[in-house]
Amino acid sequence: MENKFDSRLIVLALLFLLAITTYLLKMKAEVVELVETNTETESVKVHIQIPKFRNTYNLNFENILNSKIQEKVRNIVEEIKEAAHQAAKDGILQTKYEVYISTEVKFKSKDFVSLVIYYYTFTGGAHGITTFDTYNIDLKNSNFLTLEDIFSDTCNYEKTIKDFITKLVISRKEEFFPESVEYINEDDITKRPFTVTKESLQIYYEDYEIAPHSTGLPVFEIPLSLLKPCLRIKIN
């Protein structure tokens, strides 16, 4: 009976070690992880969730990328903290100021990562302000990619994207500014923020750029099936 019990313990211990080893190997292989911190004072509430790159081909590029993201976040947090401190000093701080930074990883492989970081700040008033940065990174060659890098210029991908977006805007015209279709058609789509998933291309517009705040941040998802002949990179 005792030997049987000992055997079970050994099996459980081996399974536990296997699970830990699998987890550690997976973590070692990950090229990006999300790091989260929360702090709160009498005047400011801060939530930060940002990507941290690691295990990439180029350590120097990895450090530059992480520093770039961290510096942007640090500047935003310091700006809001300073504003809250001044408001408290002037006796006009009625509610806590807020910084809420979150990240959505849209695509991840050892060679390519696509993600968006949202920066929400609230300093009183009717609503806060949300801005964002998109990152499309060729980790193998240590480059930041644009739409021109991802799609071939021999294919009229710009027209395909614009036609898809304007069709959606027209179908929901009550949610957008009257001049939004003209704005989209005249805009240089190759300079527009974007991310990529396995299924679609996401095109981003800023708050109030083509629609009122009540619409939310306009993000349009164009199926990659419409753009597949134009793709320069492999997404799977």
Automatic annotation (TrEMBL):
Stored InterPro entries: DUF3298, PdaC, PdaC/RsiV-like_sf
Pfam families: DUF3298 (PF11738), PdaC (PF13739)
DUF3298 domain span: 148-225
Domain Deacetylase PdaC: 38-130
Protein name: DUF3298/DUF4163 domain-containing protein
Source organism of the structure: Fervidobacterium pennivorans
